[in-house]
Design brief:
about 325 residues, VC0802-like, Rossmann fold, 2 domains, 7-stranded mixed β-sheet, elongated
């Protein structure tokens, strides 16, 4: 299957990394254009389409052609006469002004309407045309509802904290870390439960812990508000073995040592203890996705290898560093 991702463009790395992670190791990049990527992969769309957080649309890729040939492509398109269709045309930023999306859509409509009925509201098939260096044509699989993440912002939940990670970024971190939705996953600094919620919504086996009883209780309230469940324990980071299982993935946004409490423990010491505990409680080949304010605060030992790392400016005064590690 060839998949066409219309990436969000909100970060130079994270959107395409998310697509790559969800498609598995046997994927192959076929086309790359402005905020667009085409991959071949054997992974079924039902296994990942609803997990996407940093794409706008996912389509089955049909062709990447010279923009001058868009209309002729649709003139020769094999579309069943008894099925309705719609075509959406998007011109990307670098070539805006060079191509007219309304005019292209009108020309396509004139040729396809000779054989098929057009229904712009509820078509049987919706085609996407993204014009950049090439014209990339796809049959739409899913439009990603990114408004859902705004609705799940921590401030709209019963138990909140001003430093909670945005749900969209939480899901991205999980997608970069958990290799499938069948993973057992742990957030050992669960806080208000944002990462727990996103993992639970994707159907994962979710565990959480925190040193603070207040955070455990708050996470349970927030999970219940959204109809989700997780196994939670009040534990120090060094005691997560008390869950009695090893995890496929650990994802976490630990205390930064400023407005968050570290129980007066120096931040570097806390992170060092955390990595040791992660190594002891992670399956071989399992991954850690962690967000830190300072990459130098993490002392990566021989137990882990770094898979990915990048920075994301959450706002003017806060940079979140995404680090993905794999247990050797």
């Amino acid at each position: 299957m060839r998949y066409m991702f219309e990436l969000s463009g909100e970060h130079p790395d994270l959107p395409i990394w998310e697509a790559e992670s969800l498609l598995g190791e046997r994927r192959k990049l076929l086309e790359r254009d402005y905020n667009l990527a085409v991959f071949s992969s054997e992974v079924d769309q039902d296994d990942f389409a609803d997990r996407l957080s940093m794409s706008h649309f996912l389509s089955e890729h049909l062709a990447s052609i010279d923009p001058a040939n868009i209309v002729s492509y649709f003139d020769n398109l094999d579309q069943p006469r008894n099925r309705t269709l719609a075509v959406r045309v998007k011109v990307t930023e670098p070539v805006k002004g060079k191509f007219d999306p309304v005019g292209i859509a009108k020309d396509i409509g004139e040729v396809v309407s000779k054989r098929s009925k057009i229904n712009l509201e509820r078509p049987d098939t919706r085609y996407r045309v993204v014009v950049g260096e090439k014209a990339h044509i796809g049959r739409e699989i899913a439009e990603i509802d990114r408004t859902q993440y705004e609705k799940r912002k921590n401030r709209f939940l019963p138990f909140s904290s001003p430093i909670s990670i945005h749900p969209r970024l939480a899901r991205t971190l999980i997608n970069l870390t958990a290799k499938s939705r069948d993973c057992s996953i742990l957030d050992p600094f669960c806080g208000t439960g944002t990462l727990l919620i996103e993992a639970a919504l994707m159907g994962m086996d979710v565990h959480g812990s925190d040193l603070s009883e207040k955070m455990i209780e708050g996470s349970l309230v927030n999970l219940a508000k959204l109809g989700q469940r997780a196994r939670l324990k009040q534990l120090d980071i060094g005691d997560i073995s008390k869950f009695g299982t090893k995890f496929d993935a650990i994802v976490t946004d630990p205390p930064y040592g400023r407005s968050s409490s570290t129980n007066k423990e120096p931040i570097r010491q806390l992170y060092s203890r955390a990595l040791k505990s992660f190594s002891e409680n992670l399956e071989e080949g399992g991954r850690v996705g962690i967000i830190v304010p300072d990459l130098d605060a993490l002392d990566i030992t021989g137990s882990f290898k770094t898979i990915r790392r990048t920075s994301f400016r959450a706002h003017r005064s806060l940079v979140r560093n995404f680090v993905i590690l794999e247990r050797s």
